[in-house]
Structure formats: structure tokens, C-alpha cells
Specification:
The protein is built from 15 helices and four strands. The longest helix has 25 residues. The N and C termini lie far apart (61 Å). The chain is α+β, with helices and mostly antiparallel strands. The relative contact order is 0.14. It has two domains: 197 residues, NADH Oxidase; 92 residues, no CATH class. The structure holds flavin mononucleotide. The site of flavin mononucleotide has 12 residues, from strand 3.
């Protein structure tokens, strides 16, 4: 339970911590994350921004060998996450307390006024707050409140993850989709407590870079300048600066990544194979101008296309995908097997 002195804890610049973050999927099950590090992550969550200072985000910290409900939790977690939670050191179950909105609105804003945060400068005054603003907020239906507060919980979790990276631990968010409502039931959560997401924490068994930064869409395909569809460009000098500061890092897959995964699988008696998509799907993806693919991933794709025995598109699913996308007004033709659009 010992806590190091401040000078023993390295200071990681925030841009570097953001760039170092990876979803870690291979944890060292022999190593336990120190309590002070979990506490640090929770503190970071506590100080994330929250609407009206209502403090809606809570969490249950779970340890595999201490929690009587572990087996129940294991049944709730999506299949591809079971191995992860069993090798992680801690599982943080993030909760969103909807009643904070209704029950803490008055005190939250009162605490902001006493802090010198909310003032008359911005139009706040007691009478208007109590007769208009707060009752209006409190009359939101729970579904609307839930959307607002889950967003807030996301902020808290992101803060916790960044703090975790800052103190050298690996993180991943994991879905509990196998048994909807299962976590709520296991912990007997009252209906105002929404289970928002699971978060596994531990020391990475894989290299902390986890094979490099994962690709994203291009910056200007995501961000818009004054109007939707007008690309907001990132200046090359900013990009160069961020590379130097460590926010933008070498894209995956780094050299040796696949050997690393095969070796870990070998040590754990797990399938060492990779997940590959059909050749036409890989070719289409690599040709997609929306994605920011660098030379490493392109080289990997070329190698996979040349050497792997790739699966066929499941023809019977064409209709399903077309229908699912059509429901959202998306033209599925480019996603269909080549020559059939
Ligand atoms: C809300 C959320 C839920 C996620 N759920 C899972 C999950 O259930 N299992 C998993 O392996 N990864 C999960 N991830 C991790 C993403 O797949 C991951 O962010 C993505 O692979 C990009 O990699 P990176 O986080 O290392 O940049 C989740 C991420 C988010 C933000």
C-alpha cells in the first residue's frame, strides 16, 4: 500500500501521455497495479468536467480474486474480452448516476457560486436559477439526462485513462454486451445507476506501444471548417510539432508486432492466428481516401494479400449488410464484394 514520494514518479507531458495511449489487450497476469495508481486514475476522473458540478460519474473497482461476483461478470463480458479481464489486474466498472442530475442540481450550482465559478457576470442570479434554470433542467426526461450524463462519464473515463498512461499502466475499454443488464443485476444497481462501460487496467504483457499507433481517418475528413463538408486542415508544421511532442507516433504495425503476438499466444496456449478479411475488402480499404494509412500498414496489407490464405466474403450476408446500412441512409454498394455493386 506504500505510496511513492512525488519525486519518484516521472512526469509525463500530457501530449506524450495522449500519444502513448493504446488499447492494451495483453496483460501480465502476474503483476498487480499498485493501489495508488488506481486511486490516481479515479482522482483524475473525479476532477473531469461535469455539468453543473453534479458529479454523476461513479465507479466500482473490481479485483478478480477478491470479488465474489467475478464469474457472473465474466458471463456478461463480450466473448473477445474474457481473456482480457482475466489477465488484467483491475476492472473498473464506470457508472452514471442519473439521479445526480435531479438530486444534486441545486447544490452543484451552489458549490460553483461559492467557488467563484458561476457569477452574475454571465447572467446567473439566485432567483432566476431557482425559478427558471434549475427547474427546467430538472424537468428533463430521464432519457435526455442519460445522454447528457453518459457523455460526461466518457470525459471522466478518458481522464482516468490518460492518468493511467501517465503512471505507466495499460488500459482498455471493454464491452459487456453478452448479457445486457447483467452487470446491473450482479451488483443490484438501482435503476438510476446506468452501467456505462467496463475498463480493464493492468501492466501490459505486450510492449506498451502495442505495435504502434492505430490508424485513424484523415484529420480533414473528421473536422470541418465553419461548415460541414469544408475540411479543417491541420498545418504540416503542427503535425511535425506533435510528432516531436509524441502525440502523433509511428503508425502500426511496428516491426516485430506479429511475432510478438504469436509468441504471447504460444506462452498462453492460445490460437496464434490473425484476423484477416477477404482480399477485395483489404484492397478496397487501402484505396479508401478517407483513411490515413502510412507505409507500414500498406506494406502489411500487400504482404497479407500476397501470402495469406484469405477468407471469402460471406455471400449470404450481403443482403443483411445492405439492409442494415440502408436503414441509416448509407449506400452499401462500395462495401459489397467487387463486381456486384
Ligand atoms: C467505448 C469503447 C469501447 C470499446 N470496447 C472494446 C471492446 O469491447 N473490446 C476491445 O478489444 N476493444 C474495445 N475498445 C477499444 C477500441 O477497439 C480501440 O480504441 C481501437 O482498437 C483503437 O485502438 P487504440 O485505442 O489503441 O487507439 C473500445 C473502445 C471504446 C472507446
Amino acid at each position: 500500500m506504500s505510496v511513492p514520494s512525488a519525486d519518484q514518479v516521472p512526469d509525463i507531458p500530457i501530449l506524450k501521455a495522449l500519444g502513448d495511449r493504446r488499447s492494451i489487450r495483453y496483460f501480465d497476469d502476474t503483476r498487480e497495479v499498485e493501489r495508488w495508481k488506481i486511486e490516481t486514475m479515479l482522482q483524475a476522473a473525479r476532477f473531469s468536467s461535469c455539468q453543473g458540478n453534479i458529479n454523476a460519474t461513479e465507479a466500482i473497482v473490481v479485483r478478480r480474486d477478491e470479488c465474489d461476483l467475478w464469474e457472473e461478470l465474466e458471463e456478461c463480458v463480450s466473448g473477445f474480452n474474457v481473456q482480457i479481464i482475466n489477465q488484467a489486474s483491475h476492472l473498473i466498472l464506470w457508472l452514471t448516476n442519473i439521479n445526480a442530475w435531479y438530486g444534486r442540481a441545486v447544490d452543484g450550482i451552489s458549490s460553483l457560486s461559492l467557488s467563484g465559478a458561476a457569477t452574475k457576470y454571465h447572467g446567473w442570479n439566485y432567483e432566476f436559477s431557482m425559478t427558471q434554470t434549475i427547474p427546467r433542467l430538472m424537468s428533463f426526461p430521464p432519457e435526455r439526462t442519460e445522454t447528457l450524463l453518459r457523455f460526461e462519464s466518457g470525459q471522466a473515463v478518458a481522464n482516468a485513462i490518460t492518468a493511467g498512461v501517465g503512471v505507466g499502466v495499460g488500459n482498455i475499454l471493454i464491452a459487456f454486451g453478452r448479457k445486457p443488464g447483467g452487470v446491473e443485476k450482479a451488483f443490484n444497481l438501482p435503476p438510476n445507476y446506468k452501467f456505462t462501460w467496463g475498463h480493464a487496467v493492468g501492466y501490459p504483457l505486450e510492449d506498451a506501444k502495442a505495435g504502434g499507433q492505430r490508424p485513424r481517418l484523415k484529420f480533414d475528413k473528421l473536422f470541418h471548417d465553419n461548415a460541414l463538408g469544408t475540411p479543417y486542415m491541420c498545418q504540416p508544421d503542427t503535425e511535425a510539432l506533435l510528432r516531436e511532442k509524441g502525440l502523433i507516433q509511428e503508425q502500426a504495425p511496428l516491426d516485430g508486432r506479429f511475432d510478438e503476438i504469436v509468441a504471447i499466444a504460444g506462452q498462453h496456449g492460445r490460437d496464434p492466428g490473425m484476423l484477416y478479411f477477404p482480399a477485395a475488402e483489404i484492397e478496397r480499404l487501402m484505396a479508401d481516401d478517407d483513411w490515413d494509412f502510412g507505409p507500414r500498414i500498406r506494406a502489411k496489407a500487400a504482404d497479407v494479400l500476397a501470402t495469406e490464405d484469405l477468407p471469402e466474403y460471406p455471400q449470404e450476408m450481403k443482403e443483411t449488410f445492405t439492409k442494415l446500412m440502408a436503414e441509416h441512409g448509407i449506400d452499401a454498394s462500395k462495401f459489397l464484394p467487387r463486381g456486384e455493386e
